[in-house]
Amino acid sequence: MKKTLVLLLVLAQTAFAEPPTPNEQARFLAGLPQEGSSLAGLAQRGEFNSHAKDLDATWADAEARQFTSIRAWAPLGLPEAVSDTSPLLYVFSGPDFLHAYTFFPNASAYVLAAVEPVGLPPDVTKLSEGELGSSLRNLRNTLNASLSFSFFITADMKKDLQATKLTGTLPVLYVFLARCGCHIQNVENIWLDAEGKIVTDKPTKTSGVRINFLGAQGKQQTLYYFSTNISGWALKQDASFLRFCDGLGTMNGFTKSASYLMHMDEFHTIRDYLLTHCHTMTQDDSGIMWKDFPRDSWDVKAYGWYPGPIPLFKQHFQADLAEYFRTTEVPALPFGIGYQWRPKHSTLIYGVSKTMVRKAIPVVEQTPAVAPTATPPVPIPVPAPKALPVAQ
User: Fold this and answer.
1) 4-27: string of b/e by CB count within 10 Å (b at 16+)?
2) Amino acid 341: pLDDT
3) How far apart are CA 16 and CA 145, in angstroms?
4) How many angstroms separate the CA atoms of 289 and 291, rounded?
5) pTM of the complete model
6) Which of 92, 98, 220, 272 fits 176 for a cystine, CB–CB 3.0-4.6 Å?
7) Are 339 and 313 in contact (CB under 8 A)?
8) Using CB atoms within 10 A of its CB, is residue 55 exposed (0-12), middle (13-18) or buried (19+)?
9) Rounded CA separation 257/129 (Å)
10) HSE, side-chain direction, 13 A CA sphere, residue 86
11) Smallest Cα–Cα separation from 229: which of 91, 88, 89?
């Protein structure tokens, strides 16, 4: 036993002579096989094996229950958005890259915005023997909520990730990227100046991270996560996040489990920004109110069923949306999403702008990003539209 432990320590020290790459860190946190990785020695420990086994089971359940159905359904239900390579703007996202990538695998960039802190790129080699097991366990606790219920429980996530050295949203983003089959190339902490330009050497109020990666289809893509307050009063004081988004050109919009914030006056600024800067908007009923989509400039439809909000948000029941479901043959939704996460209980609203032209322009930066590949992105083929089943 003693000889085995010594051997593992020697292997680990040898492997860590070269720092593990971000992609190796991500695959480790995701509980994926470590053959050829500089973390292979550390992966021999029981804490990793337990982590990998538990995460494999949770992931398989989520795939069977939700994500396989999303991949099959999205090209038929959201054809304009799924086939588009324009950037995706996901507000009130938390670190939920998983749903963004599953619904919209062709986006050239993913821009996530929430109040949760970014944190520093995780390094499992810096965790002590006692810290590794607890850190991986708390990471699983955070992931389990999202994979089981389709949304993060913010208070629990904050507690779980603050309790260890795997802090901020980056560990979760790493896991989702790795489990989605993406290969991380570069990770950089960034900030936005007052004009919305990216800076890397001068911390500002709006902090973020930029992750360059190769997607599952081999395309060069970028994930941005910004820790920022997008309430109306905060954007009046600091509009750097919106100025950054201005540089993306026309985007596709996405949100879910958004606490019905855009139903409130204090979040009408971000609501109006989405309606005037996005070509499409995909959301559950907790996003933009049904009545707030201007029908002269937006075509809007819904999928699934509208049971109303969960009790915590009962004051946000939308009578006009309920009437739409009562009087319209609404196509079924073969998966659950949002707060009403059970299948056949979920609402998905999809709007397509009549006026916004799909056009992306390069992001204005003060530091160079990783050069794109020579071959332009190739969209994942979209099947020919079929008739979607009507909800019963």
Assistant:
1) eeeeeeeebeebbeeebbbbbbbb
2) 82
3) 33
4) 5
5) 0.86
6) 98
7) yes
8) buried
9) 37
10) 26
11) 91
